[in-house]
Amino acid sequence: MRRRLLSLLLAVAAGSFSGLPGEAQILPGGLGGQRADPPCVLDKCLGLKPNTPTPTTPTQSPDAEQSAGRSTSVAPGSFDFYVLALSWSPGFCASGGAAKSPDQCAAGANPGFVVHGLWPQNQHGYPQACNSGARFPSRLALDSAKGVYPDEGLARHEWRQHGTCSGKSPTDYFADVRRARQAIVIPPELTAPDADQTWAPLDIARSFVTANPRLRTDTMAVTCRGNALEEVRICFSKDLRSFVPCPEVARASCRRPVTVPAGH
Prior knowledge:
The protein is an alpha+beta fold. The chain has a single domain, classed as Ribonuclease Rh, Chain A (Alpha-Beta Complex). Helix content is about 25%, strand content about 15%. Strand 4 (about 220-225) and strand 5 form a beta hairpin.
C-alpha cells in the first residue's frame, strides 16, 4: 500500500513540473506580450489562422487577461492608438522572402521600407481578430489596398488580425493604412542604400525624427531580427493626425547595432 501511494505521489509531482501533453504554451507577442500566432513577420503572415480573442470573465479584468498572455474580447474600435509597422524589405528578401514574394524581391526592385501593418494598440497589450464575421474583405476593398502592402495575401491577413479591430470597413481601414504611410518620410540615407550598413538602432530612430520633425524617439521603435534590421514601428493617434508616446512599443527597440542589408 505504501509503495502504491509513493508511486502516485511521484507521478503527480512529475506532472506538476514538466510540460503536459497538449498544455497551452504562452508565446511572446510582438507588441503586447499576448499569446498569438507566430510573430507576423512578412514571410510568416500568409496562411496563418487568426486567433479568436478570449472573452474575459466577470471576475477577471482585461489587465489580468493581458498579463496572463491572453488577448481580450473587445468591441471593434476600442483601442488607444495605432502602430504603423514598416518592414525593411531587403532584409525580408535576404531571409528567404524571394520565394514568397518574387515581385517584391525581383532584381532591381529595391522597395526599401514597405507596410507590414497598421495595428490598433492599447497602452498595455493590443486586440486582434475582433470580428469573426468580417474577416473577408471584398474585391473592391482589396483593390483599394493595392500599392499599400507588398502582397495581397498580406493585406488579407492584416485585415483579419488587425483591421477587424479598427471599427471601420475594410475600404476605410485600408485608406487609413495608406494615409499613415503617406504621412511618413523615409530618411534619404535609408531610401535605397547601395551597400550593407551597420547602424545603432537609436541612430535609425534619430534619422526618422530628422526627416519627420513632429516625430520623437519615444513615439517609435526600431526592431531587429537576429542582428538585422526588421522594422520601424511608429505610434499614431487614432485620428492619424499626430504621433503619440508609446512606452510599451518603444521598449521593443533593439539595443545593439544592427545590419541594414541593401537591396540588390
